[in-house]
Every structure is written in C-alpha cells, then in structure tokens.
Amino acid sequence: MPPGMDTKAIEVLREINRTFYLQYGESFARTRRRVQNGVKQVLERLPDEGVWLDIGCGSGALAVEWLQRGRKSRYIGMDFSEVLLEEARRAVSALHAGEQVTFLHGDLTAPNWHLAVQDIPLQGILAFAVLHHIPSHDLRLALLRTVHSLLPPGGWFVHSEWQFHHSPKLMSRRLPWSVVGVNEENLEAGDTLLDWRETLPAGEEQGGLRYVHLFSPEELQQLAEQAGFSIEETFSSDGLGNRLSLYQIWKRL
C-alpha cells in the first residue's frame, strides 16, 4: 500500500460507497437518468463496432442513449449495485434491445471482477465517474492493469473523473474524516468525504456519505504510464462552465 494508506482505511472507504448505493441506489438513480454532455461527446468519437464494456454502468442511462442513437455495436454494462442494475434493465426493456445490450453484476474492487468478460473480445472499456470511487493508488492501478489485460493493442479506455473543486456547492458538502472515524493521515491527497442530499416529495431531506478521490492531471498521467496506456485526448465538460468533469481517451499500448 502507499505510505499511510492501510488496509483498514481502504475498507472503510469501500464500505462508505457500498452502503451509499445499498441505501440510496434507487434515489440516486433518479438523479442520473440524463447522459452528461461530456459522455455524448465521447459517443460521437467512439467507433461503432465490436463490443464495449461499461464498468460502473449505474442505472442504464448510457445504455438507453446507446440504443436511441442507433448504434449497432454491442454494449455490456457492469455494476456492483443490484438496485441500479435492475433500474438499468427496466430502462432498456422498452427499447427491445435483445442481446445487443446486457448487464452483469461485478464489484470492481474485487480481484476477480473481470472473469465474466475475460473471454469476450472487447473493442473498448468505458468508466464514467468510476475511478474516483476506487480507494488507494494501488487498487486503482490494479483495476487499470486489469482493464489493460482485457483490451487488444490499440483498444480504447475512456473515463471521466469529477473535478468537484470547481463547484462551490460540492465543496461546501465536504465533511471531516472524523465523521467516519478515519485518521486523515492514513489517506491519500485528494481523498474526500462528501455529504449527499436529496429533497423528498414531502419536502424532507435524506442524505448519505460518499467517498470521492480528486485526481490531478499528473496523477492520471502516472496511472496511464504505469498501466500501459497512452493518453490520446483530454477535455473538460459538464456542470457550470463545463468544468465539473475531466474526460480522457486512453489507448492500450
């Protein structure tokens, strides 16, 4: 592990997000039914051939967009939340996707998450707003090396990361790590605890906790090099001023 990032701290971070999606997965899905502008820009760049794996697919918004655009390539969505996967299946059922769109259960923090797709020849892998929920440099690098192993030379890996420091609203929702009993010295630079809130129809608020890692461009460059990728394109999009998310297109070396 990186200095100061012990296994106990990593497990706490994993459990924070696991608990969030178990408790609030359905509520969260209601806020994520619209495909972000940055994702739409990515879709315009992707070749429409082969099989594409979307890790951390959530409630199926991208799968619906995939079909509505008339794409012919196959789409496989994977997520660890059964609640979100059920929402995704419902979302595409009315579009009569058949075998073109399928969904699989998989926990990206588990070492064997890739076994269900390791024999499928993939054109590319998508990971929108996913890596920033993976705790520790080591686990992120392990995930990226697995992604590398699933792709052919020249295969695509496209991802987006929150740049929440550009949002005063999100920055105001940062909480001290003492709330969850974690010593900040045992975490990595960029690790952040956020307070998530939703207003219910009756006007009451419900909320949960989310772990998010804030990436720097230098950190992403290092991860790409260590995992065996070249960074082909970087752009910002989404939110006020189109600065809330950083998108990158990587190619497998």
From TrEMBL:
<dbReference type="Pfam" id="PF13489">
    <property type="entry name" value="Methyltransf_23"/>
</dbReference>
<dbReference type="InterPro" id="IPR029063">
    <property type="entry name" value="SAM-dependent_MTases_sf"/>
</dbReference>
<protein>
    <recommendedName>
        <fullName>Methyltransferase domain-containing protein</fullName>
    </recommendedName>
</protein>
